[in-house]
Structures are given as structure tokens and as C-alpha cells.
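During the reporting period the student researcher (J.K.) took over the structure-prediction task from the postdoctoral fellow and processed the backlog of single-chain submissions. One of the processed entries is reproduced below for the supervisory committee.
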Amino acid sequence: MTELLAPAGSMEALKAAISNGCDAVYLGMQKFGARAYSSNFDFESLKEAVTYAHLRNVKIYITMNTIVFENEIEEMKEQIRQLNEVGVDGIIVQDLAAFDYIVKNFVDMEAHCSTQMGIDDADGTLLFKELGAKRVVLSREVEIKKVKEIKRIAEIPLEIFVHGALCVSYSGNCLMSGLMGNRSANRGRCVGSCRKEYELVDKTTGTSLGKNHILSTKDLNTIDYIEDLKEIDSLKIEGRMKDPTYVANVVSKYRMALEHKITEDDKENLKKTFNRTFTKGYLFREDKRNITNIVRPNNFGYEIGTISKVIKDMYEITLTRPLNQNDNIRISHNKEDVNLTVAKLYDKDGELINKADRVCYIKIKEKLSIGDLVYKTKDYFYTKELEASLEKEFKRFSLDIRVYASPGSKLFIDAEGLGFHYFYESEEILGEAINNPTTKDQVIKQFSRLNDTIFELNQVDYEECNAFIPAKLLNAARRDIVLGLYDLKLNSQEKRTKAVDAKEKISFAPVKPYLTASVTTKEQYDACVSCGIQEIYFENVVRRNQNKYKDKEGQLLIGGYGGVYHYRATNPFVTDYSLNVVNATSCYELYRLGAKRVTLSYELNTSQIEDLRNAYYEDNDGYPALEMIVYGKAPLMFTKYCPMKKMDQCRVCKTKSYELKDEHGTFPILSHEDCTTTLLNGKTLNLLDELPNLKGIEAFRLNFTVESKEQVMQVIHMASGKLNGSMNHAVFNQDTDTRGHFNKEIV
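J.K. obtained the following C-alpha cells:
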């Protein structure tokens, strides 16, 4: 059966999701979740959430999908232990340390691979199946045909996003918020840099191609493809930052669709809560031109009419859809918006009205023009309807009772519900009825009062034996039975843990630090060779989200888990920054899988690197083999989307170069052969002066992207001098950022 998985940023949203038909809910705690600005749950509210959900046969998954720094490892483990005690069903993780701890220590609590892991192929899925994952959340970029292929090959439950906000970057592979604003997306604090306005500039000619929200994606909506989606194990709705009415609206519509009860009007109602307009996404092969909405990055609403006439201080609106008093509307005027709540609505005679279907009049202070489009952003009455659904019971569970009542004996009731039996025995002795013995109808009447429970009365067996059962006693029995069955349901599963085996220790002999280089052009490669760089990453790079694996010779630089799985038996390899390694356990797990060296995440500062090395030494009686990127334009995001195609510059990228520009700087665009895109930081990371002070790093990488051959040679000369301790004061004329890796911890 396909699981409908709903978001909950609060207890109200959780109840909204369950009351509208979800099968499972995912939510975050105060730490280690990728939505730090959501209300989230503490352990007291989580206990309430788990109780509420489990009584209704709804599962609870916790998002712990951030990277975990070394000084947080014990806190992370303690939180996982407490989550097991509370009884959550699974934890969604990005960091290998969290994944490893769940798999090795707990029997019933599942480890789910978050979309932040970047798994988008059968190889990556098979790797984590082997490591103990019970579910993989695939990248949003995977097409439905491939999702089904992965499911067939890997034979492990898969989860995919089917509705809600999209990241323009491959999730978890975006450093834009962190490197630009010290608020890391991989720490749950994304500022939504992609939602900003940018100018696309043709660097070859210096021409501006326009300023808009070029990176802001539309919202995913796949409800028209529900039959295709039913083959997938779990359908996930995005929205932990959304309010309960949004959750109620979307969950109810997908439940209707799954049960073949949805109408076209129901689908249209998805527009009545927050949306950025809709796309079917990469899941169903949306044209890249239609992935983004460059006009506005927030709630779009839906069109209901136009400004058709100006009469003194009143504007006439000709409507295509109804408008009600207290609705919220947005009027688009000269690329600017006027937003207001319709406090007063008038007819053509100037009389106040509550609703209009064709024409209405509104007093608006702002200057508008005839032809301006009017959008409804909140439907007052529909919102009230959604609010009324927030705590209703989506389904009730049968309660069957067999009543034994004889004069001179206690009242006995054998009750069955939620798959459990509960036996009730009264303290008082029943008397014989003088005139009116208790009838079956009277028993049914008292036991039918179940509206404040999850039950509905089903079968009642009662043989009248001339006994009198006080209504007060029947009511007390009903309450006791309900609570007894609740208790049996909630405490039926033991919170089991595993005995952990001792691990094999892995360490590496210290070596004299040396330089490596990654390049994007043959000219850069030749420059590195001429300067004596021994390890150069060029045609031997297997990036994250590669998807196609070809036979290769020699050592590889691997950026994704699929590549690790595919090449580990045939090629020595180094793992790239895109695996986001920030702690010793993640290093260890990658060495265990065959990594010769691990490249550290851009998200580490020097103090955290030292913490990692010390922790690794303590666990393994030796140090890790580490690589660190110390020079180059950091890749802010890697995306399947192409800004040039959106701006009708398709394939011109082969002959021209482009960049995005905002008030803070520029961001060069690298276009790849497969029409994917990397957006670079305009400033150049430069830690060359720090090389003598960076201890315990085996390889220092120079990352060349847009540099000329001469610039490459100059940087290598400078880096070699710094690494060897010589005084080299050559000047490289480029806008640099000497902060390098984050100079303070991002929490």
C-alpha cells in the first residue's frame, strides 16, 4: 500500500495531516533538523505527537538530516536514544555518523536516507541497502521511470517528493546560503538565496539579459499523475514551514486522489493555499523553462479578475471567479504588487455586499491601472472550511464488546479494539432488576458515546439476565475500556537495542603534505602537469549525481555514493567535498568502503577539523587521511536546471560565458556537457597563507574553474612556496576571500 507522508512543523499541523488522511508524518526536533526556523518539537510535545499518531495507526518519522560536527556527536546519539524510547518509527538522516549509529544500535527504529544524501540511482540505493537503510528518499531530480527502475533493482522501499517547494540545487549540494551568509542549509538555516532577484549577464559582451527571480522554482504538483505514483512506497509532501491549513488542503487532496475520489474542482483548490504556481517537476520530465517562476518568489495565488474601470476613489473589478469579503487579494501593477484584505466590498450602486461573482468595487489607496490583474491569495471561507477539518477523526476504529451481567455478580466486559483484547471487571455487585432490567439497547446507548475517542461501536453481544446495570457504571466501564485499549496499543512494542560489535581500527601513516588540483579545461590540466602536480582531477572525476558510470582507469575523485558503490571494487578513489564529511565517524565509514582519502566539507572551520582529527585518533589509534580545498571559486550549487535555457540562451553557453549578479557580487556560471549547471562563488577562496598552519592534512587541493593557464601556474607557484615554507609574495590579482572555510561554527 502506498504511504502518504505529510509534513508537520507543529502539533496543529500534525493533527491537520492526520485528520485529513495521511499514513505517516515527518517532523523535526529543536536540533539536527533541516528546518531550524520551523516551530519544531521538544520531547514533551513529541511524546504527545507519537501518542496521537500511533493510536491512529499513523507512523512518525523524525528529520535529523543536517550534518553533525564532532562536538555534537554525543548530543546527537543521546537524542537518537531518546527518540527510540519515545517510540518513533524512523529517523531521516544525511550524516553518515547518525546513519551508522541508528543502524548499529537499534532494532525497530529505521534509518531512512534523506534526499540531502543525493541518492539518485540504483548504485547509491544498493549501497545504503547494504549498509542497513530501510528506506531511501531519492533526489527530486529523478524521473519516475528511473524511480521504478531503482525500485525493481534495489528492492528497498523508496520515498519521493510529490508536492511542495523545490530546491533549485540538488538538495544538500547547495552551499550558497552558508558561504554567502553564514547560515548553512545543511545545518537547517537556509535563507533561501535562490529566491532572491538576480541579473543574468553575458560576460562575453557585457550585456544584461534581464533581472528577475531566475533561480526561484515553482512548487511541485503531481496530483494528475497519481496512478503512476501508486507503485512507489511513500509519497512525500513538502511543507514543515507551512501552516496547518496548507497541510490539511494538500493532504486531503492527495488522499482523495489515491482513493479515486478527486474532482477537477478539488485539484483547483490546491491553489487556494500557498503556491508559487505549479510544475510537474523533473519527476515527470518538465521542460527546464517551466521549473522556475521568475516573476515572484512567494505566494502567487490564482487569478480571479482584472481592474476594468476607475470611478473616483473606487476601482471596478471584472471577475472570472467569486470574491468574498475578508478574502486576501494581490493586484499586479507595473511589476509591483498591491496586497490587501477585502474589508469592504461594494456593488455598482455603492452598497456593501458580502460576495461578488461578476463585478465588484473596492476602495484602494494605491494607484492602479485598467488591465491590472487581480489574484486571490487567501479564500476566507475555504480557509474556515480547512480549519474545521484540523482535529476531526479521519477514520474510527471498531470497538466490539461482549457483556456479562447477572444479578449477584460483577459486571464483566470483554472488549476488542485496535487488535487487542481488554477485559473489564467491575468492583460492585449487580442487583436484580425489580421492574426494568437493563436492555441491550441501553448498553448500546451508553457505549455509543465515543465521539471523544478514536472508536466507533461495532458489535455488541449481551444476553439479558434480569440484571440492573446503572448507567453510571456503564459509562465508567466505557472510559476504562477505551483507556485500557489505548495503553495496550501504545505499549505493545518493546524498544529494542542491539549489542554493538567491536570495530576494526583504520588509520594512515603521516606523509609530507602535497598539492592536488581539480581542473575544468585541458589548458588548466596541462598547466598543472607542467608545474609538477602529481594528482590532478579532470577526466577521472565522478561527480555526485553523475548517473552514468563508465569504465575508468586509475585513481578517481568520487563525489556521490553511487560512484563509491560502483567503483569501489575496481578503482582506488578519493571522496569529494560533496559528501559533506564533517566528523570522524563519516571518515571512518568511507575508509571502510575503500576511500584512500576523504575531502573535507567546505562547512568546516579549522577548529572543527582539529576536533575531527583528535576524535579519529582516539577511536583508531592513528590519524585519518584528509584532503582540503584551499583555493578556488567554491561551487555554491549544482543544479539540473539551466538559467540560460530559461532566458532563451540555450547552447550559446558553448561560445559565451555568463554570470549572475546581485547587490553583493557576481556568480560565474559553469555549464556542463549534459546541460547541468554549477553556480560559483564570485570571490575566490584563498587559504594559501594558512598552509603552514593547517596541521594533519595530507593533500591541499587547488580548485581551478575559470582561471587561465597563466593564472593556474601562478597559483601553483604561490601554493608550492607557502607549503614549503618559502617567502613568496607574488600577487594574484583576483577578488579573494581569505575566510576560506567558515571562520565560525554555524549552528
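The committee noted the following: Residues 727-733, 742-747 have pLDDT under 50 and may be disordered.
J.K. will present the remaining backlog at the next meeting.
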